[in-house]
Write a structure and sequence with these properties.
Blueprint lengths: L9 E4 L9 E2 L5 H20 L6 E5 L5 E4 L5 H26 L6 E4 L12 E4 L4 E4 L6 E5 L6 E5 L6 H7 L7 E8 L2 E8 L7 E8 L12 E9 L11 E4 L5 E5 L6 E5 L15 E4 L7 E9 L2 E8 L11 E7 L20 E4 L5 E12 L2 E10 L5 E11 L5 E3 L6
Parallel strand pairs: 2-10
Antiparallel strand pairs: 1-5, 3-4, 6-7, 7-8, 8-9, 10-11, 11-12, 12-13, 14-15, 15-16, 16-17, 18-19, 19-20, 20-21, 22-23, 23-24, 24-25
Helix pairs in contact: 1-2
Length: about 400
């Protein structure tokens, strides 16, 4: 790892704005919708009572959508406006309450000892009580922790590989890959990939649940089916999904591996599927001639969007050559460049991590915001343990020119 190891124990109590690590955004949910309906209905009733049509604005939804009622002048219209303004306030309160259900403070612990925690392609989120960690393998089992040091195995998202995945791929893949955990529209979203090594016959699927704790009321994973598919005739590979949010809070899905690199599609916040109003596929980064690039994740800071990716070879134990790279853009759709202004679609990027000592092939990670803090949650291959893949977490800081700098590992 770069820099010296942090040799003390420090607990940082976080003031969380977004959900844990992972991605978090409070869209309109049940409360927001109820507020909108109440506002519109209240405006209509009050306006009619005064002999006027409904007046004012009723309730707010995701991205500030409003229900507008044209109003005639008069006391009834004014009352309708007042009622619908109250409805809007109720909608806003509903949105805030929905977001708050998953947003709370969580401790980050830095320890001087080595933590042997197996994981590959990790993605992590804080749900208000515990951290939840997802990674490649099987039917997407996940683990939870109060402090990032002691982890408890939980359940799995699925009891078996979804049948639609097997049908789409033509065979059962055996394992689901690279899950990404995010929170929006009052649901936790797990995007995941189904594929086989070296192939772009692949799918990205989605599962949702209102809560992550299996012992909590409402816990239930719903298979939402396919989000993106690629076949051997495509020039991209539909794996390694990651959700990011633009400055307006709209969700986007980054994905891709090898072939023509990293792609981006806008999502419909209500369904979690691809947006039908914006069918554009954006190309964000590539290596040329199908070179090795994957594991994209995007965070924003101070007017910039940062695209983290992994270059070179994963999954070869001590022979892995993964490196963590980054570029930035002023719009979530790019263009992303290195410090010299060279476009990431031409293979340019700034290196953040490479093999060092026992820590081989660091990458396959997720950059995420945790309150006012940023983290990079990733795996490495342990040179002192036959190349087993293990969890690592580093804080992300930004230098005077707003380029990211990775801090020391929270644990060795």
């Amino acid at each position: 790892p770069s820099g010296s190891m942090n040799r003390r124990v420090a607990i940082l109590l976080l003031s969380v704005v977004l959900a844990g690590c992972g991605s978090g955004h409070g869209d309109a949910g049940v409360g927001g919708a109820a507020g909108a309906q109440a506002g519109a209905a209240g405006g209509a009733v009050a306006g009619a009572a005064g002999g006027g049509a409904a007046g004012g604005v009723g309730g707010g939804g995701a991205a500030g959508r409003v229900g507008v009622g044209g109003g005639n002048a008069g006391a009834g219209g004014a009352a309708g406006g007042a009622a619908s303004v109250a409805g809007a306030a109720g909608g806003a309160a509903g949105r805030d309450a929905c977001a708050a259900s998953a947003l709370a403070g969580g401790p980050l612990v830095s320890i001087p000892s080595h933590l042997d925690f197996p994981v590959h392609d990790p993605s992590m989120i804080w749900d208000g009580t515990r951290y939840y960690l997802f990674g490649t393998g099987g039917t997407l089992s996940f683990r939870s922790s109060l402090n990032l040091v002691q982890w408890a195995y939980g359940q799995s998202v699925f009891s078996e590989i979804p049948a639609w995945v097997t049908t789409a791929l033509g065979a059962n893949p055996g394992d689901l890959w690279a899950p990404d955990i995010s929170y929006f529209n009052c649901q936790f979203h797990v995007y995941y990939a189904g594929s086989t090594f070296g192939s772009n016959t692949s799918v990205i699927g989605l599962a949702t649940s209102p809560v992550l704790n299996p012992d909590q009321a409402g816990y239930k994973w719903t298979d939402q089916g396919m989000v993106v598919q690629s076949t051997s005739s495509d020039n991209f590979n539909a794996i390694d999904p990651n959700v990011a949010f633009d400055q307006n809070g709209a969700p986007w899905l980054a994905f891709g591996s090898f072939w023509t690199g990293i792609k981006l599609r806008q999502l419909d916040p209500a369904t979690g599927k691809l947006s039908t109003s914006n069918p554009m596929t954006y190309s964000l980064a590539g290596r040329g001639n199908g070179g090795a690039i994957e594991a994209a994740s995007i965070v924003s800071h101070n007017g910039f969007y940062y695209l983290f990716v992994s270059f070179d070879a994963c999954c070869k134990g001590v022979d892995s050559t993964y490196r963590t790279m980054v570029g930035r853009a002023s719009a979530i759709t790019g263009p992303y460049t290195d410090k010299a202004g060279k476009n990431m679609t031409s293979g340019a990027a700034e290196q953040l991590l490479a093999s060092s000592g026992r820590y081989i092939g660091p990458g396959g990670g997720t950059a995420c915001k945790d309150g006012d803090n940023y983290l990079y949650v990733y795996h490495y291959y342990d040179g002192d343990d036959n190349g087993a893949s293990k969890l690592a977490i580093r804080p992300i800081a930004f230098d005077s020119t707003d380029w990211p700098v990775l801090g020391d590992m929270l644990f060795q």
